[in-house]
Design a protein that fits this description.
By secondary structure, the protein is mainly alpha-helical. A 3-stranded mixed beta sheet has the order 2-1-3.
């Protein structure tokens, strides 16, 4: 049989309804603005404020940078597609987006687990916190997150990029998804599908175990706090974290720890939208900006900038 080599893919996007496209465009603009604003604020405040030079804020600063880069791999292109109705992406562009999306997404899982471990040590072993979570160990944790993520995602991504694509070239998604690319290839992809499933199990349930055990120990410790006010405050913070973690992991597990649906399903796009947009929008406000120290530092910075402006006038 004669095959035509595919040179571009068509991404159907989030919806085919013109009215709904307008609503989604506005929501994505607001969401992306909040993601950038929240995370840039976290990075700026934790860099300039001397009281926030602790391991927790070092990890939060790296997490904020990760969120900006992760969402920037697909939200701008999705907005462009909604605005211009151009749904075509080149073959190299698709592979690059897939690599960055899954590499940075994997980093996110490891960073969430790392921050959970940090909170576990701080709450359950406060006397040993500064010894365990020293600057060197924090740097090693962050570098390990980036390095392990690369080692896990780079091989299957390269294998997918070397597959032949002979048509069709339409993906029912808003970014280049690995499972849909495998379905569009005109060769046997069983080995790569198995490899991706193994990698997904290592990444998602693996980091979930660390996160769940950490928060489990934190909850047990909180229950032993003698003050009811202290318990209530601690549970308020912990419950907000758990809400975001639950949404993030539940949607990710259902999306990737199961056989891919042939042709892509609308439900897959909804799940992807939740863990790649909604949780990323909530993270800076749940993990950082609800923190009293961060809010106080932000207030002081705003007052300082306002006072400086008045003096110049």
């Amino acid at each position: 049989m004669n095959h035509t080599t595919v040179v571009e893919f068509v991404l159907l996007g989030l919806t085919n309804s013109p009215n709904l496209e307008t609503v989604l465009f506005l929501f994505l603009v607001i969401a992306y603005f909040l993601i950038l604003l929240g995370n840039i604020t976290v990075i700026s405040i934790t860099l300039v404020n001397n009281f926030l030079q602790t391991p927790m804020y070092y990890l939060l600063r790296n997490f904020a940078l990760l969120e900006i880069t992760f969402t920037s791999t697909f939200i701008p292109s999705t907005l462009y597609s909604l605005l211009t109705e151009k749904k075509i992406i080149s073959l190299p562009g698709c592979f690059l987006q897939m690599l960055l999306f899954f590499y940075l997404g994997t980093c996110t899982f490891f960073h969430v687990a790392t921050m959970s471990f940090d909170r576990y040590v701080a709450i359950c072993h406060p006397l040993h916190y500064s010894t365990i979570m020293n600057n060197r160990f924090c740097l090693q944790l962050v570098l390990a997150c980036w390095a392990v993520s690369f080692l896990l995602m780079f091989p299957p991504t390269i294998m997918i990029a070397q597959l032949p694509f002979c048509g069709p070239n339409v993906m029912n998604h808003f970014y280049c998804d690995a499972s849909l690319l495998l379905q569009l290839s005109c060769t046997d992809t069983g080995f790569i599908e198995g490899l991706l499933l193994i990698v997904s199990i290592i990444i998602i349930p693996g980091t979930l175990i660390v996160t769940a055990v950490s928060y489990g120990c934190i909850i047990i410790t909180i229950l032993h706090i003698p003050s009811s006010t202290g318990r209530k405050k601690a549970f308020s913070t912990c419950s907000a974290h758990l809400m975001v973690v639950t949404i993030f992991y539940s949607t990710s597990i259902y999306r990737y720890i199961r056989p891919a649906q042939r042709g892509g399903q609308d439900s897959d796009k909804v799940l992807s939208f939740f863990f790649s947009v909604v949780t990323q929008m909530l993270n800076p406000y749940i993990y950082s900006l609800r923190n009293n120290q961060v809010r106080q530092a932000l207030k002081e910075s705003i007052l300082k900038a306002f006072s400086s402006s008045l003096r110049q006038l």
